[in-house]
Amino acid sequence: MVKIYVIDTNVLIQAPYAIYCFDDNQVVLPLVVIEELDNLKKSEGEKGINARKTIRILEQLRQKGDLLDGVGLKNRGTLRVEKNFVNIELPHDLPDDKMDNRILKVCRGLEDQNPEQVVLVTKDILLRIKAQMIGIRAEDFTTEQVEEEQYTGRIEVYVPEELFQNLGKEGIPIEAVYESDEHGEHYTPELVENEFVIIKADQSTKKTQLGRVENGVIKKLDYKKSSPYGVKPRNAGQYFLQEALMQPADKAPLVIVKGMAGTSKTFYSLAVGLEKLLNNPSGEYRRILICRPNAQFDSDIGFLPGDEQEKISPLMRPIIDNLEQLIDSNEEERYKDEVELQGKIEEIFGRNLIQMEALNFIRGRSIVKTYLIIDEAQNMTPNQVKGIITRAGKDTKIILLGDPKQIDRSFLDERTNGLSYASEHMKGSPLCWQISFTAEECERSILAMDAIKRL
């Protein structure tokens, strides 16, 4: 049975290509959606950009035929604009002047003509609830949704005792390691390229080594004994993170790091960047560039006073906090002379070794020979994260940091945010290294770790 998918504006604002994602079914755009696109086309940032993209797609389709009658899509489906059903009655507590309710009118009218065929597709949870209240089937847009069990970039396995010592020599073939199920049965797990591995000897489980999958073999870590900018790993997750960050950009141009607050994601990323630029200036990178999606593509920061750096500085305060700890590693003496500490920070920025920018200024640029940190990347859309990764020029390393469970942006969740999207789609790429921290690897404080477990 052919279904009729009624598309809400927020779906198109997040993914203009959504029009083509419904196979050989009918796609219907209520006239109110066209009006909303018209209102959004001059908006700043990604919201306006995606509105204009959608409008251009509609114009291409309009040139092929009458949108009111329906135009064929490349996937054998059809798209049409629906301007009728303005006189459809809704419950009195759903007033006509709300745009969401005008969409519900279209759904109700189509449902009356085509029982059990109509599906409303919207990112708005409350609109889905209202649709259910009046008997309209409603769904989220799931094309960009990743699996519920997300890739962690790490695994714990056992290896026969006689092969355990081979890690530092020729490595351990991935076929030789195993896991055990709840019945004690052994099975060979599926390992992917660049996946980090905690290896235990099966006859003496207290023997543990750390490795990484490369071309079908588990190899030892290259940078296990490093201490970038004086920082030493405190747990397996930090050893894995250090390995990914220390690798040159031609071998590991993309690093994706997921973990809750306090796991030192930002701190460690900055430490490695400073090591590369200051302690051992090998010329790999010419600067560290830091962005946070709190000043995102669709944020208008123009009304704030000052230049760009002054506008975004409140959003970058967590970066400064981490820098203060790195610049002066003596915890007892660090804050005794605030002026001196501030002077050290300002010197680094004054030499343009570290730059901070709003993400809306990155679009359209090619970023070359740069150590690029995107903090709080879980607040990016899939389209934004694609835009960032495709900005990478020669010798640039991109580090995406975030916690998929801490979403601050409307219409995104743990499975549809840009960080999770990039993690799932780049899984297994030889150019992408990933690591997820566990709750036990929180290093911020005893209280922070306790809170993560309890709250």
The biggest beta sheet is recorded as: 6 strands, mixed
Amount of helix: 25-40%
Write down the overall geometry: globular
CATH superfamily of the largest domain: P-loop containing nucleotide triphosphate hydrolases
**Secondary-structure arrangement, i.e. CATH architecture of the largest domain:** 3-Layer(aba) Sandwich
The helix-and-strand class reads alpha/beta
The CATH topology of the largest domain, please? Rossmann fold
Just give the CATH class of the largest domain: Alpha Beta
**Uncertain parts:** 295-299
Could you walk me through the main structural features you see in this protein, from its secondary elements to its overall organization?
By secondary structure, the chain is α/β, with parallel strands linked by helices. The protein is 31% helix and 19% strand. It has 14 helices and 19 strands. A 6-stranded mixed beta sheet has the order 3-4-2-1-5-6. A 6-stranded parallel beta sheet has the order 16-15-17-18-14-19, with helices on both faces. Strand 1 (4-7), helix 1 (9-14) and strand 2 (26-30) form a beta-alpha-beta unit. The radius of gyration is 26 Å and the shape is globular. The relative contact order is 0.12.
Describe this structure in a few short sentences.
The chain is of the alpha/beta class. The protein contains 14 helices and 19 strands.
Outline the secondary-structure elements:
Layout: E1 4-7, H1 9-14, E2 26-30, H2 31-40, H3 45-62, E3 71-72, E4 78-82, H4 99-113, E5 118-121, H5 125-133, E6 137-139, E7 154-159, H6 161-164, E8 172-173, E9 179-180, E10 186-187, E11 196-201, E12 204-214, E13 217-220, H7 236-246, E14 254-258, H8 265-279, E15 287-291, H9 308-312, H10 317-327, H11 338-350, E16 354-356, E17 370-374, H12 382-389, E18 397-402, H13 418-426, E19 432-436, H14 446-454
Parallel strand pairs: 1-2, 1-5, 2-4, 5-6, 7-11, 14-18, 14-19, 15-16, 15-17, 17-18
Antiparallel strand pairs: 3-4, 8-13, 9-10, 11-12, 12-13
Helix pairs in contact: 7-8, 8-10, 10-11, 12-13
